[in-house]
Amino acid sequence: KLTSLALQPVITPELVQGRVHLKCSYSPPSPEPPVQYRVLWSRLSSPGKREQVHHETTLQSFSYVEMDGANLRLGDTVFCTVTAFRRGTPEQQSLPEDSRSFYAGIKFLPESLEIAEDGKEHVLTVLSTVPIACPGQDDSCKITLQLSTEDLGRQVPGPPDIALSACQVDLLPEPCSGSSCAAATVTVTAATDFAQDGNRGSRISAEPVAPRDLLWRAYTPRDVKVTVRDLPTGNCYSFSDPHIITFDGWRYDNYKIGTFLLCRSESRAFEVHVRQWDCGGHRSATACNCGVAAR
């Protein structure tokens, strides 16, 4: 019987003659007599359901299938299932063994982000789990992804809730290692809007820009969901003739005429100047706000 074979199928991506293939490798039983393998390739067609795309019987301890954009496309989750049996006695076969799922396409790490309105930069890695092919001799080998953001559930237009450090990234081919065959990074920052508007949802989308490789043409990677956590904001005031209330609640008056620094951040380029002119006439020395400049 062959029921106890540890075949351990594993899917890895490879370029074969300039085209993207997936390779299913499995452990040959040793020192068993000659064995054949039945390899079934399938893709996830809907949650929990698989669709067969290719099968073969082979003496080799590996099997290839091409990502041709028809049977297997970018964005597919792929499995290979291997059964071993003795030549001439196909009824003596092992239990079928599944590989782990292999997602072919663009991945974002992390797959979702929760960030706060604190100005911090969060690194988002964009990687391709399949090799970047070079369709022609004159091509610079790369896939360019156009990045965009969208605020979810917003009723009225306004400034975006998140900002990216780049509008596009280039994925340049490199030897496949782990789950990455090409990678780039971009930073994500939550916009500090000084408004108590609750936690808000956004998403980051990527789209390949005019790829020459047919495999990439009809492919749109999955979005990244970003939750922006609202932080309490401070307020300071200068009003009337001017009474001033600071961020931490101190109150005082400034009756002088001139231009003054109302507040300045010690951590970033932000400051507010006020100009006060005489508004009391001859009877009383009173100054009022007449101008403001903010940077």
Automatic annotation (TrEMBL):
<keyword id="KW-0732">Signal</keyword>
<dbReference type="InterPro" id="IPR050969">
    <property type="entry name" value="Dev_Signal_Modulators"/>
</dbReference>
<dbReference type="Pfam" id="PF25776">
    <property type="entry name" value="Ig_VWDE"/>
</dbReference>
<dbReference type="GO" id="GO:0009986">
    <property type="term" value="C:cell surface"/>
</dbReference>
<keyword id="KW-1015">Disulfide bond</keyword>
<dbReference type="GO" id="GO:0005576">
    <property type="term" value="C:extracellular region"/>
</dbReference>
<dbReference type="GO" id="GO:0005102">
    <property type="term" value="F:signaling receptor binding"/>
</dbReference>
<protein>
    <submittedName>
        <fullName>VWDE protein</fullName>
    </submittedName>
</protein>
<dbReference type="InterPro" id="IPR057885">
    <property type="entry name" value="Ig_VWDE"/>
</dbReference>
<dbReference type="InterPro" id="IPR001846">
    <property type="entry name" value="VWF_type-D"/>
</dbReference>
<feature type="domain" description="VWFD">
    <location>
        <begin position="234"/>
        <end position="295"/>
    </location>
</feature>
